[in-house]
Amino acid sequence: MATKPAVVIVPGAWHVPDHYEPFAKRLRTAGYETVIVRNPSVSVSRDPGNMLRKDAMVTCDVMKKLVNDETKDVVIIMHSYGGVSGSDAAAMLCEWLGTYGQPDHGRVRRMVYLAAHVLEKGEPMLGTGRVINHLDVNEKGMMVHQKPYERYYADISEQEAQAPLDLTVPMAYSAFTTPTTYAGWRDYGIPCTYIKCLKDNAVPVEMCDKYIARLREGGVDLKVEELDVGHSPFWIDPDGLMELIVRVIE
Predict the structure, then answer these.
(1) Are the beta carbons of 241 and 112 closer than 8 angstroms?
(2) Where is the AB hydrolase-1 domain (predicted)?
(3) For the chain, what is the domain count?
(4) pTM, entire model
(5) 23 located within any domain
(6) DSSP of 100-150, one letter per residue?
């Protein structure tokens, strides 16, 4: 039986590792070493610029330790905005391993896009006419979403959603305006899975289908899965997401 890969989870915008712990705990119980990245873009009080690049570098460093130092394979699960920084991070890792990696290093076994954005090389999140409504950007360049319940947790009651809503934090605006450096989903031969959330108000099914078409047109070894939930299954249905991810990994 193949050795279980480590799992790296890349959060979406405004989200922090604690949002993903209900899901991550289940992965760990099932025997998967699991690391949740904390994006620098949600760890600053003022936007210093170029935050997409900084987010990707931190994720790359997390994977580098697992893949190169510990010679493990990795599955990277990218939620929402995490698909942008995570794709660049996977590409950075592949580039680094090609020059500096140990001979017996591991690899990125699969990239999992969980209701996530799939951008072309050189494309920013807020490029090509993409608009995200209800954003407020303050004088420090930090953005807050004014309607996070409706967008991310509308398939549970507002009372039930209060705990994850209380965890959300401001995010550096430049994470959305910095262009990607790579097309990590296409250019490194990494198999991908795209998970559509059928009740999603943030990355609706129509947008997911466009991203899936992009992956297929790029010649990606692709599997498509569905969950009958909104944008945040890691909190709302961690058991269902766990079952799906284990099937995807194994």
Answers:
(1) no
(2) 7-239
(3) 1
(4) 0.96
(5) yes
(6) H--TT---EEEEEEES-----TT--TT-TT---TTEEE-TTSEEEES-HHH
